[in-house]
Amino acid sequence: MTTPADSRLQRLQALLADAPVIPVITVPELRHAVPLARALVAGGIRTLEITLRTPVARDAARAIIAEVPEAVVGIGTVLTPDDLEAARDLGARFALSPGATPELLRAAAASDMAFMPGIATPSELMQVLAAGFTIAKFFPAVPAGGMAALKALGGPFPQARFCPTGGIGEADAKAWLGLPNVVAVGGSWLAPEAEIKAGNFAAITERARRTLAALV
After folding, report:
1. Does the residue 214 lie in any domain?
2. Residue 1: pLDDT above 80?
């Protein structure tokens, strides 16, 4: 019998199987949201993390979900159970957090939302695993020890899989994805704020294409 936790995990695994690279997007103004999502989709990157870091973030996610059906929208910077519920209400396909409090883990375990909690240390990973989550966001990836840290975590925690985010760029994404316990990488390099504000969406499309081509 499939449990709710099994269902969440299966949906998250299916999403990540098609998303080796997940852009971490901070939308400065609502008018940028849909053109930005379309630019990334045109470059072959469909799975997007919209962070809750700006006042327009929720409206931006709502607009992308409504107007860019090819996009698979996740909500990032989920800090509280209310944020998690908001992600679900928006129609997001998954949610991510930079860390994980006991309160947030309890809410996520009780929710049907596919969720990727954040960890940076072995103790945090143990708490996440104990709550039933085997795929975690490793954040901030480079400051928290980089690839060496993830290799070390693979020893005592062979069941855990990671989406490292924080300090990863176009040049080293492939190396991170080469680690056996990494299922995807996240990063803001795909959609720099300066290009978003300038409306230079063609550059974002080209970078998305170039990034995916380099992973082959």
Report:
1. no
2. no
